[in-house]
Structure formats: structure tokens, C-alpha cells
Amino acid sequence: MMEAGWVEAPAVAEPEPEPAQLGPQVVLRRQRRVWLVLGGLFVAMLLCAALGLGLGAMRIPLVRVLEVLLHGIGVQVGPIGLEEQGVVLSIRLPRVLLGLSVGAALGVSGALMQGLFRNPLADPTLIGVSSGAALGAKTVIVLGASGGWALSRDVALPACAFLGALVVTWLVWGLARRDGRTEVPTLLLAGIAINALAMSLQGVLALLASDAQLRTLTFWTLGSLGGATYDAVWLSLPGVLLVLLGAPFLAGSLNALLLGEGDARCLGVDVERLKRVTVLLTALAVGSAVAFSGNVGFVGLLAPHLLRMAFGPDHRLLLIGSALLGAIVLTLADLASRTLLAPQEIPLGILTAALGAPFFLWLLRRRGRRGGF
Amino acid sequence: MLELRDVCVKVGQRSLLSAVSFRMAPGEVLGVVGPNGAGKTTLLRVLTGELAPRPGSVSLGGQELARLSVATLARQRAYLPQQAALDFGFSVLEVVLLGRTPHRSRESQRVSLEIATRAMELADVTPLAARPYLELSGGEQQRVQLARVLTQIWDGAAGQSRLLLLDEPTASLDLRHQHSTLSSVRRFAASGVTVVVVLHDLALAAQYADRLLLLEAGRIVGFGKTRDVLTLDNVSRTFGVTSHHVTVAETGLSLIVASGPAPRASKGDSP
Amino acid sequence: MTMRQTRRTARPWRRSRSWLVLLFTLVGTACNNEPGQTQPSAEAPAVAVGSGEPAPPRIVSAGGNVTEVLYALGVGSALVGADTTSTYPLETAALPKVGYLRRLSAEGVVSLRPTLFLGTDDAEPHAALDQLRGAGIRVELVDDAPGLEATYARVLAIGSIVGRRDAAEALVHDMRAAAAPVLAGVATAATRPSVLFIYARGQGSAQVAGEKTAAQIMIELAGGKNAVSGFEGFRPLTAEAVVQAEPDFYLMPALGLQSLGNVEGLLAQPGIAQTAAGRARRVIAIEDSTLLGFGPRVALALRELAARLHPELAPSLGSAPAAASELR
Question: Touching check for C7 and chain B: CB below 8 Å?
Fold first, then answer.
């Protein structure tokens, strides 16, 4: 404070007595906190995966699940029923793995979008990724049946969905660019315009669709992990892992971006490059995920929000934390989809919406207390 | 050393700055004053490197701003804008630590924290360190932002020039903090930083700046010591007010105050 | 300030701790499951063995006509689950459903512990079928082609699969016998009225059937001809198409007609009221799965349709079934 005895020159030349409150303990606490939270989320994710393997239309005790898993990697632990092995290894394991991959992709993309738009209501649909994927998939569903497609539909559908996601995002990005710069409000408007266009094209496809195709379109829109195979897992994983490895490098820049573009630029952040990379990573992650699961909403909104409410907006925690929490949410939602109306499955998108909508109503009511997010 | 040569900035037909030239040594505080629309904020934006002068040049420590990379510039130049728009729930400490962003790849968290701590003391926000930024008053938030920009250029490599730009840093501050902030800025300057601060309060400018730059309609009306620039004539003409000298008997502090807008017809005359 | 900071970090910890407790409880519950709890809940009655082939005690079927054949062959009591397109006979309502034909739930099927999964070849997703095989369930698919011969072949194939070949052959014999007078009768018909088949599910979704559709095959078998041609599959209904077609009759599945608002609703569709058939209300409605399913009741639909198209032949087409009332 400004008492007598205060040194006139700024305290650069000489070491000053550190105030008691801030010090090495705070540093360690901060560093440790990030790792503890991420570690805790990781463990929770593994637990949810275990639940997903054990529960469902058929209950398999956790011990048996572990035995089957060990058996699967070649370790003999005891007699294994063919049925249980089939359920765990052929049906549930790829499904749980795909769920983790899709959930992580949606979670991290939601965090990236919310950082880019500096708005906690942002999610990947804004830049057209989801409608692009939907357009690609629906094109295959409606037109692929009659045309002479060389590839089987099981390959063509995810491939076109992924391509659709990338192409539409590229369109949105291109529309929003001017003179080498992309203004965020323009990006938003371009996204709205292209989304509307994609919707109308999807409407045309729905018009051309036969009854059976229409049902398939609807199911795709609602999302499901029912088609999970190991192939799907291996195909969706690279894109997702790439994004998970790359995103943490953006954390510091995204934090600075929260101050505003001008201030971020003053702090040395290449804002245009940051925007470009963020949009690209989002398209890659969501495209890889949605190609195999169909449209699943709200996860990209929920996960970063929950984390921000509990731990603050620091992207060093938020990006990977959202990925982990997204994986948890999706795995649990998929578990519910397989269990609530067994032996039928409720489409995944319905459950995530059923979770998401009340959450947002609650969030709206809570917001006034602190202001901001 | 900060040097401007013939800096001109035009937008369409309008000239925002014309033929602005001056030089400041490290450790000096330059107060930029002038009426609204005189080009003060534009000048700051040229100094941040955001606006490129056409024609003209700005150089810091002998190097042209335009030639410096974004990353290098970020380590040498910090800018505190008039309005800070932060709508996310960072704590004060986290906001201040954001100032170390350009240095984060070169230093440990411990060092960043030490620097942030010292900057917070200088800006008088240490007691607020753990509080959520959004819960603070406007003035407190402004001081936190000041701490952040101080953190950004707290240290410099030997021989490297540092530049601190402040756009009306006292706008929402109470009387005490107006003075303590500018006093801290002076102390910070003494460590070898060139400071350019835009102020609307002539008294504060006179008291805390080593030299003043008086702008009107993009042109320099006066540059130099306070008593040379803030003459009754200059103030009356530039600001369009009826002005008077006031001297404080105890300290000999001499101020110029305005008693009212100048009558239209006599805008060109001295009272 | 330290107090505040520790409090802030403690709160999220407390929250995540309670989540972890919840998860551990759930895991513990899963762990405590006795293996006995995964036994099948219902005992399946043994099915009489025929032709020396093994009798599958538990069947899950996919495809409405497949399910119907299974009941017709007398193995309905072995069914433990079916897809949502299996709606006939009424007993199917009590069966657990494993999803839509093209969106089967592999886990759902497995949880019913079937020994046989029997479906049409457009059952999807293919991955699910592979997963069923991986779980040790026998998966058999039958061709879903339309047409009378294809239907007879399908019935025989299903019969072989479930070990009821004799019953299948008897059923096919009955089906042929029921269809024969209809086919003979329409062969002598003087005219081939044109029929426009309309498919609808509620307002705004009406489509007409072109070539290579089950509807066209039924129309032709009943001695009529498709009022539209030149395209395959379905096309949206337009006024121009309808007026140009100027059909002698309109044919609709019963539920589809109901979804439009019955005949009045159909007349409100574009172009219909401008045609002679529309004004004269020459609308034939037949129950959905009977008409298009190509299952055991195909002869009933044929007879009904032929009788409407060729009223003069009606007496000679075979005994009017008491089950005609079923067709509405």
C-alpha cells in the first residue's frame, strides 16, 4: 500500500518481500488443481465405460466384464460364455469406445467454439458442421440407394457425412473471409445462411425419399451408436485424437482471446490464425464423430458449461476437461438409451436433448447471480 | 527511444493525423491531451502497431514498428484500452497473469506469478487477487487491467525499449486512485519504459507527465514541457473554453482550469 | 484470501466426490449381480420336431411378413421378440420389440436370448447382424422379393429353417389354391382397368407408385395396369401427374387412406377431384400388410382387388372369405 517506506522505484531492480497470500503454494495449488481435475475426470470416464460394458438390456457383472476383456487380449481367466463374450466384445465394447470418441469430440469442439465466439452458448452447429454432415449422410441415404454406387453404403455414408461436414464448414469460412480477415459476427451470419441452405437441401431429399428412407433419415437425425463396429471406431479415432492432441496448444491463446480480439492481438496472439485453426479442428473432430453416430446435440454445449461453472474459464482445463466430460455424458446417455426401454433403443439425440433442455432452463435461472459466465 | 516521423493517417478523405512528429526517451511520460476527435486514440492505435501510418514511420528503440514481428512487439509494447470487454469468470489473478501470454513459452509459472504479484501491488489491487473479476466495480476492474498491462512488459532484455500506452486510465477511478495510479505509472516509467498516456484531465496531465502533446484535429498544437504547452492561449483556443491560471499557494502547483465554454464569436481570442 | 481460495477449490471437490460415490454405488450393484440373474426370464415351450431338423425354441423375427409366416406355420409360440413392422396377427402386440427393421438393436435381440434370428434381407444395420452372429445366435435372412412365386419360395425357405417343412408345403398349397381362381378369372377379363396406387402417411406426404413396386405387381396380378409408368419406385403426388394418368381406380393402403382423412381427404389432394374416378369415388382401400406384405394373406388381397376391378367376375373368384371384414 501507499504508506511511507514504500520504495520509490518500481520493484524490478531489487527483490521485494513477497506478500504472504500469494506465493509458491498458490502456484503449486494451481498446477496441481488442473491435473487433479483432469485426472479425476479421466477416472470417472473409465468408470462410466465400465458401467457401459456391464449394464444394458442384459446385466453382466463387472467381474465377468473384466474376465471377458482379459480373455479378449489373450489372458485366460476362466470359462467364458459365448454369449457374454459376444455381447461385451462384439456389441458393447465398440459401442462404448465409439461413444467415448464421439463424446470427446463433441465436448472439445464445444469448448473450442465457445472460446472462439467468446460466448458460452456457441456450439459446433454454428459453423455448419452438423448440417453439412447431415446433408452428406442424407444424400447417401436417399440417392445412394438407386444410383450405382461402387462403395457399399456402410462405407459411403460415413465418408459422405465427413466430407459434407468439411465442405460446408469450408463454405462458411470462405463466405466470412474478407481481405484475409474473418470477423466473428460475419462468421456467425455466414453460418446461419449456409445452415438454412443445407436445411432446404435436406428438405428436398426428404421429399424424394421413399417411406423406408424417410425413416432412416429420421433415425440418423436423432443419432445413435447402434451401428458401432471396430471399423467405425478405428475410422473415427484418428480425427478425434488429432484434435485432442492439438487443442491444448491453443489454450493460452484462447484465454487471451477472451479479453477481446484487440487485446489478444496486443498480447501477441495471431488471432486470424487462431480462428482458422479452431474452425478446422472443430470441423475435423465433429465430422469424424458425427459421421458414425448421426447428429447428437447438446453435448458440445453441456460439457464446457458444466466445467466452466465449476472451475472457471481457463482453457488449459476446459479443453481436455470438456472432452473427458463429453465422453462421460455420452457414454451415460447411451447406457440409458439401451436400458430404459429395453429391448428397444431410444435414439441418442432424444436423450441428450432431454438432459440438455432442463439444464439450460436451470442455467438461465441461475445466471443472474454472478453475471457473466 | 520512441520516435515518430511525419505520421499521417487518413480514412477516405478525412485526415485523422497529419505530420505528427516527436521523440521520447525511455523513462519519460508523455501526456496526450486534446478535445474529442483530436486524434488521441488514433495516435495510440498507431503506436500499438494496429494502424499503419501512411506516410510516416514509428520506431521503437531504433526499429520500425512495422518491421517487428507480432510476438516481439507483444513483449515490448503494452496497451490499455479505454474499455475492457471481459465477460468471463476469471479471477483477478488470472486476468493479470494473462499479461504474461507473450512470455509464457519462455518462463515458468513461478516467475509469471512473481511478476504478476509485483504488478498487482503497483496497481494497488493485491487485496482483490482471489476475487472474481466480474464482481468488481468499474474502477477496480480498470486497475486490474492496468496491472495486466504492467505485467506484460514488466521486464525487458537489456537494451530493449519498452512502451506503455494508456488510454484514459483514470476514467472510472476515484480521486485517490486517479493519483495513485498515475503515480505508480511514473514509478514504472522510471524503470526504463516510455509511457504515452491519453488524459482528459489537464490537471492530472500537468502533474504527472514529463512532457505534453496537445492535439487538435489531428495536428500538433504543442509539444514539450507543461508550461510551454498548456498556455492560456493554447487551452482556450484548442478546447474552446474560457480558461484561467490557478496557483496553489502551499506547493506552488500551477493549474489551468476552465470556467465555461468560450462564447462562439470569440473562439479565436484569448479572454 | 486464502480462506476464499481453499473454499473455492473445496466446493467443486465436494461435488465431484458425490458423483464418484454415485458411480461406485452403481458399479457395486453391477458387481453384486448373481450370474443367475442373467438367465432367460421366460421358459420357451418345446416345438415339435419335423423332418429330423433341430427345433429352435426361441426365435426373434424381423419383417412383418416373416413374422406372419411363422405364426401361420404354428411356431408363433416360439417367438420371443419381433421388430416394429411385425403387426399381424394381434399376438404380436405382446411381443417385446427390438426396434425398426432397419434399425435393429443388437443388444436388444441378444438380451432375449434367442437361438434363431430370422429376418428379411433388408434388415439393418448389417453390423448388428454380425454382432448377433458373434454372440452365437443363428442368423438367417430370407429374400424379400415381391411376387407370388417369390412368396411361395419364401414360405418354404422359412419352413425349412424352423424345421416345419411339411407345414410350409401345406400352407403354400393352400395359398396356391386360394390364388388360382383369381388368376384364372382375371385372365378371362375383358378389360384391364388402370389403377393409381397412392401411398400416404398424413397430410402432405402423398406419393404414387411406379414400376418395380409391390403395388404394381399386385395391380397386375389382379388384372389391372398401373395408371402411371416411366419411373421406378415412388414419386411425389402432383396434380398434373394425376390428371394425366386419369386412372379408373385409386388404390390405397387402409391406414394410409385414414391418415389422409378417408375418401374426403383423398379428394382434397391435388388433382384427384378433377378425375372421373375421383368424382365417382372409385377408391379401393385394403389393409396395409395384406396388400403389400406378400405374406400368407396375399390371396385375400388379390381376391378383394380383383373383385373391385372386375365386378362381373366376383362370383367366380372363389368363396368370399369371412375374414373379408379383416381387410378394413
Answer: no
Residues A138 and A228 in one domain: yes
Instruction: Tell me the mean pLDDT per 10 residues along chain A, length 373.
Output: 35 42 61 87 94 85 84 77 80 92 96 93 89 92 63 80 94 90 91 94 87 84 86 92 95 94 92 95 94 89 88 92 96 91 87 85 69 46
CA distance A241 to A97: 13
Q: Is residue A216 part of a domain?
A: yes
pTM over 0.90: no
A210/chain C closest Cα distance in angstroms? 6
Q: Which residue of chain A is at minimal alpha-carbon distance from C33?
A: A61
Same domain, A195 and A263: yes
Cα C141 to Cα C123: distance, rounded to the nearest angstrom: 8
Question: Per residue in B82-136, pLDDT tens?
Answer: 888 788 889 899 999 999 999 988 888 888 899 999 999 999 999 998 888 999 9
A321 close to A302: Cβ distance less than 8 angstroms: no
Chains touching chain A through at least 3 C-beta pairs below 8 angstroms are: B, C
Domain that holds residue A62: 53-88
Query: Are A226 and C103 in contact (CB < 8 Å)?
Result: yes
ipTM higher than the 0.85 cut: yes
Q: Are residues A207 and A263 part of one domain?
A: yes
Whether residues A175 and A77 fall in one domain: no
**Which one-letter DSSP state was computed for residue A86?**
I
Q: Give the bridge partners for B9, in sequence order.
A: B17
CB spacing of A262 vs B50 below 8 angstroms: yes
Q: Which CATH number do you get for residue A178? A: 1.10.3470.10
C-alpha pair distances (Å), B198 with each of A363, B40, B178, B215, C150? 41, 7, 13, 11, 90
Kind of pairing, strands C99-100 and C79-82? unpaired
Burial category of A50 from C-beta neighbours within 10 Å (exposed 0-12, middle 13-18, buried 19 and up):
buried
Domain membership of residue A161 (yes or no) is yes
Measured CA to CA, the distance from residue C316 to residue C302 in angstroms comes to 13
Please tell me what DSSP assigns to residue A226: T
A266 contacts on B by Cβ (under 8 Å) = 48, 74, 77-79
